């Protein structure tokens, strides 16, 4: 049994990670300030004596004797991370410093939930880990992108300078049940709009692309990364290489909700919205023996099912 700390444990990804690590017999602590996460995501775990939910902000130090730390605390949807951009930078940077300090002190292994956003609006396609990215440091998305880039810098330097055992996962767009209906991300928006017979809002002309990974594939990738030997630190891309235009996504969602009367409408493209995104996952295949197994359509069916139930209740 390992003692594992998950920051952002009450969020979309964090709650599935808590579930997975508890099911493997570990002792799990979720640390969350409930900004974008919710107690309802982890309510079903609270009766497990090996699970603890702690309300805490990662910009403040935290101490606990643990063997592993998954550092996930940070709002992930553009709407949420741009709500208070200074706080977003603090969460990424001070959160990383506090969790790395803890890892150093208790000799824990620590994994950072980094992002494909470190590649910005990428000029190399598909994105390989060696690509340094194309990020506007003063744009609206910078609080998230640069915060995550600074966190990677902190992680690698704690490894170089203090021999802290680190892992960096560059996570590509992930979706599934427990995304918040008002989260603002494209998959939750389109599904909720279609279920409510409201217009489907495509930003720009819908020709921009994203690659969508189902939550269970990501969780498998993260756990495999944590379990690699100390010599492998990453960064490693974890995503599904299936690439779709946003227009294709809208059409797919509508085809899976045939009773919907929603029409597609076009709205202005947000500032610095990346034009293309697709992971090269050769490194993950090689080092983690991992690849995604849930195709977009199957993942969408599960997610639509979840939103149907949530919106009804
Ligand atoms: P989420 O918003 O559902 O989860 C983030 C969690 O962190 C929430 O529970 C929130 O309350 C908590 N949090 C935020 N600020 C905090 C703070 N200062 N102190 C303590 N807790 C705080 O988002 P998610 O999709 O589950 O993302 C989890 C992590 O994965 C994030 O770090 C995100 O950047 C990263 N990521 C996600 C995606 C994706 O597509 N979902 C892609 C790339 C990277
Ligand atoms: N998007 C859209 N309509 C929406 C929400 C998002 O067309 O209602 C677009 C958005 O402009 C972007 C893509 O979908 O091009 C993915 O957006 P999301 O916020 O989910 O993720 P990110 O931009 O961070 O990859």
Report on this structure.
The chain is of the alpha/beta class. The protein has a domain at 3-172 and 213-240 and 278-293: Rossmann fold. The protein contains 10 helices and 13 strands. It has helices spanning 12-23, 39-42, 78-81, 85-106, 142-162, 186-195, 215-226, 246-256, 282-288, 296-312, and strands spanning 3-7, 27-32, 51-55, 68-71, 109-115, 166-171, 174-175, 200-203, 209-211, 213-214, 236-238, 243-245, 264-267. Strands 3-2-1-4-5-6-11 form a 7-stranded parallel sheet, sandwiched between helices. Strands 7-10 form a two-stranded parallel ribbon. α6 packs parallel to α8 and α6 packs across α10. It is globular, with a radius of gyration of 19 Å. 45% of the residues are buried. The model has no long low-confidence stretch (mean pLDDT 97). The site of nicotinamide-adenine-dinucleotide has 27 residues, from α1 and β5.
